[in-house]
Amino acid sequence: MRIILIGQAPFGATTFKALLDAGENVVAVYTPPGKPGAKPDPLKEAALATGVRNVEPKTYRDEQVFSEFEGLRPDLVVLAFVTSIVPARYFRAAVNGAICYHPSILPRHRGASAINWALIMGDKRTGLTIFWPDEGIDTGPILLQKEIDIGPQDTAGSLYFNSLFPMGVEAIVESVRLIREGKAHRIAQDDSKSTYEPSCDERVAGLDWNSSGGQVYDLIRGCDPQPGAYAQLHGEKVSFYGAAFVPGKIGGEIDVAPGTITGLDLKGVRIAVAGGELLVAKVRTASAGKIDAAAWAAATNVKPGDRFGKLS
Prior knowledge:
By secondary structure, this protein is of the alpha/beta class. The protein has eight helices and 13 strands. Strand 8 and strand 9 form a beta hairpin.
């Protein structure tokens, strides 16, 4: 099959190499336009290194871009980490249509931040879906799915890099093989079970100390490493990373207000939350950057009894 790969970043590059290793015929890759002076996208670098054509359209709505795409006579389009809007006519231009990787068990967590929201919303399991995209947002029929448990210490970063990234590459290669062999499924999504969440950015990453300790912890790990869940202390925005949640009483204390620093040690900063305590290993501030929480506390004269609040 003549495959066109649309993607970017390490995931797109790794998928491209895996398809070549599997003996698939990738005739072109489409990547976002490069910025002057910026390092080339890893997928673009991988394509150029192997002599595969690389195209960097400014927009997929350009008629010439579509005409050239159609002229490549694709049998299959593979979408591997795509943030641009690709009109559905590109999918219809291929003999076998298109497949897309999404890091959730669709129809749950449609949207751009599926991994983040699985953690933020307290899911115990997640996974990935390879589906046939249509005009909607993550709404097309399902080809295959794979599931994994979400561990109590998982973050968005650990789930992606340790599990959903390598599993996703393998699933795309498997899906292409199934299509080539005529064994690929098209299972309609159950829209009654769908959820759609917005992008996980700073608009949703502010900590609410009135939430339960588990909810505070889930927001922190769901925003780790990006965008970083945050609160305010001494007039400065402080983002939290590498957190752990310890349920139970806080050192025997009664009525410790959530958000109050209860202790400092080499492991980090301890913070009271409803139903337990957080241990935060790293923080990020505008003045200090990302730093061990213990070093930050020592440098800024943070002490037990100080209380985090919402950012004004």
